[in-house]
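[step 3/7] fold_predict: job queued, chain A
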Amino acid sequence: MSPRSSTPRYTVPGLSTREGGQMIDLLSMRLHSLNDLALTLKHIHWNVTGPHFIAVHEMLDPQTLAVRGMADAAAERISALGGEPRGTAGALVTERTWDDYSVGRADAIAHLGALDLVYTGIIADHRKAAAKAASVDPVTEDLLIEHLRSLEQFQWFVRAHLENSAGALTTADAGSEKQAAAAAGPSRTTPAKKTAGTKRVAKKSTAGKRAR
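[step 4/7] structure written:
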């Protein structure tokens, strides 16, 4: 389910309330995406193992903090546009169009293989959102471009661990997070434990790139 349509009673000068509502809807999904990414990064931070543990464990904390800052900026822009940012876990689970991160306790490089696919989905959707905002609200577009600058750098950090001797990504042919994890590291990954909300797997997902 996508976020409910939001036409505010007022919005920023220069935009109609209809245009403000379009930007609120667009940013609401970006907010969910960023909140989910922050949780995923922490999940990986807690569950990495193996000889690269400390390097990956410590690399992910600054990324988590930065992504939380992006979520805060997106939420504040929604408020400035006259909307209501929905930051609860329930809203995230109800409105998102992707499944939970699927790798549990595993080798650090295996996790980075899966995380690369997560970043690909988020970056692709952020770019689409920025393109839609360009013709309506350059301020929202600028915010999303600022996010992309950091998100693409973080993916570069991840991908630097995944290159083989020929300079290609070891996960290039992976069609899912678990396949990417298996291609990147030792095959000793453990699926994430199922919770009461795991029935979310029925939600829409893409074969190779998780749209977020």
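[step 5/7] annotate
Residues 194-209 have pLDDT under 50 and may be disordered.
Residues 38 and 64 are 5 Å apart (CA to CA).
exit 0
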